[in-house]
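Lab notebook, design round three. We kept the backbone fixed and only want residue identities now. Task for the bench partner: fill in a sequence for the structure below.
Input structure tokens:
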């Protein structure tokens, strides 16, 4: 799955990793195939099988009438589950996954397809964020399926990546209708028997539907999932903060601890929007909306350890004439918005992309030191010539699917790489961080670089300028990267 075998968006490998590619120049692209419709979830891979979800294709006559200037487009409660051949991307089989809540296609904050499938090599499970789930074997035979009615009106407003642990399939759902011990309008962590589809347990602690829970292990090897609550638009789940949910036999589904940030509720709720991150010593949380702080919490006790501002630090702006970075010491931002799902922790550092500003932020967790480095906003590719990075361009995207139709329900998704939307979660492969932003550009960052101005390894594209849109995370498997956008899916491999 896109979150990796450990579910924490990180993997170590001795295989050769593709660090540079271009669909525009056919560089390191093993194959690329068009998809009949778009989708926003991750990609699961096992052996020669690729699994992903798309929205149901709309008949041409209906799709041709859709106006890209209006907030109208495709709408469905169902999704289409695809199995592709890893060798060439050809479709091996497809199945329909029923849901109960119709929502629009390609909303800038995810849609029904946003949840990544998971597999154990024998069976594959897929979740429709509009309220559906099913299990198949690798030949496409359905073993079980179930539906539920999502709550909140926007079930897709999360980049939740399915978690498969042992015989448990974890999802975020409201409680059962007959459950009087939980709030019917809230979401909870639900554990499902992967073999039967039956619910085994539901956490007492709620999960915000904007939140991205993360699986990891404590220093003694005990597995747990970190969940959070909080967000914009009246997300109801309380109390705002984090909970660490045990997956051990003795404490299965129970909270090891619950933590609430001190201070103003409105300021603290924004941490629930982020990818959850934790390691054997600490869990992390963003505080504030415009004035950002980063908080660390002791992973064993749930007690707050530190809180550092993300508003001041050394800023590096690129001077195109001098072709070098110009450093400004002690720069202070009056306002700063981060992209909710673009944070990742690597060693002692937090990395994330800003919103509305083309900057990567590197925060040293032990000392609180911040560095802000400007990034190119586009790449200019000519076959046979060196790639040229472009700075401060005003890029857009056409918002069209592979058939040339404007089926997206939200015109706001046609902005630039640093627009207001929920990009896919970043991935860490060895020391390299992969940030894929809405225009399909993937920024590869060396997290081990001591000099931040030397950390940007490459800027890679998924297609022609202003013709790509994606909210997807990449998936890495055995030396190859798989990445999709609104029009198609690409297999990226060195020397191809």
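Proposed sequence:
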């Amino acid at each position: 799955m896109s979150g990796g075998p450990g579910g924490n968006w990180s993997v170590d490998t001795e295989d050769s990793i593709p660090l540079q590619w271009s669909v525009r120049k056919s560089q390191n692209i093993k194959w690329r195939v068009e998809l009949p419709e778009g989708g926003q979830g991750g990609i699961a891979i096992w052996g020669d099988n690729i699994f992903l979800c798309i929205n149901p294709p709309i008949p041409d006559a209906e799709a041709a009438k859709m106006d890209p200037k209006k907030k109208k487009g495709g709408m469905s409660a169902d999704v289409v589950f695809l199995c592709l051949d890893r060798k060439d991307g050809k479709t091996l089989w497809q199945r329909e996954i029923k849901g109960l809540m119709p929502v629009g296609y390609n909303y800038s904050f995810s849609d029904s397809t946003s949840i990544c499938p998971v597999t154990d090599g024998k069976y594959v499970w897929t979740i429709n964020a509009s309220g559906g789930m099913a299990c198949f074997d690798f030949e496409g035979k359905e073993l079980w399926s179930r539906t539920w009615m999502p709550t909140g009106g926007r079930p897709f407003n999360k980049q939740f990546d399915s978690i498969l642990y042992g015989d448990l399939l974890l999802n975020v759902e409201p409680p059962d209708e007959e459950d009087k011990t939980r709030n019917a309008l809230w979401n909870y962590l639900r554990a499902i028997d992967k073999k039967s589809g039956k619910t085994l347990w539901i956490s007492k602690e709620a999960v915000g539907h904007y939140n991205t829970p993360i699986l990891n292990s404590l220093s003694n090897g005990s597995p747990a999932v970190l969940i959070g609550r909080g967000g914009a638009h009246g997300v109801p789940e309380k109390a705002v903060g984090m909970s660490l949910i045990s997956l051990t036999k003795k404490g299965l589904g129970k909270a090891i601890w619950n933590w609430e940030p001190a201070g103003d509720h409105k300021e603290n709720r924004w941490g629930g929007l982020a990818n959850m991150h934790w390691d054997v010593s600490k869990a992390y949380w963003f505080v504030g909306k415009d004035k950002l702080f980063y908080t660390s919490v002791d992973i064993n006790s749930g007690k707050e350890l530190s809180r550092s501002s993300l508003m001041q630090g050394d800023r590096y702006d690129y001077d195109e004439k001098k072709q070098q970075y110009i450093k400004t010491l002690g720069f202070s931002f009056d306002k700063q918005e981060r992209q909710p799902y673009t944070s990742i922790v690597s060693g002692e550092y937090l990395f994330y992309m800003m919103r509305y500003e083309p900057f990567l932020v590197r925060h040293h967790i032990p000392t609180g030191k911040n560095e802000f480095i400007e990034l190119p906003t586009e790449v200019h590719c000519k076959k046979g010539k060196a790639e040229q990075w472009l700075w401060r361009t005003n890029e857009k995207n056409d918002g069209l699917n592979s058939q040339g139709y404007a089926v997206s329900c939200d015109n706001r998704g046609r902005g630039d790489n640093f627009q207001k939307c929920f990009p896919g979660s970043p991935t860490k492969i060895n020391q390299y961080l992969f940030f894929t932003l809405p225009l399909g550009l993937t920024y590869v960052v060396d997290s081990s670089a001591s000099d931040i101005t030397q950390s940007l390894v490459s800027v890679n594209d998924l297609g022609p300028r202003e013709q790509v849109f994606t909210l997807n995370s990449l998936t890495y498997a055995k030396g190859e990267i798989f990445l999709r956008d609104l029009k198609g899916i690409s297999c990226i491999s060195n020397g191809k």
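Keep this in mind before ordering anything: The chain has one domain: 10-493.
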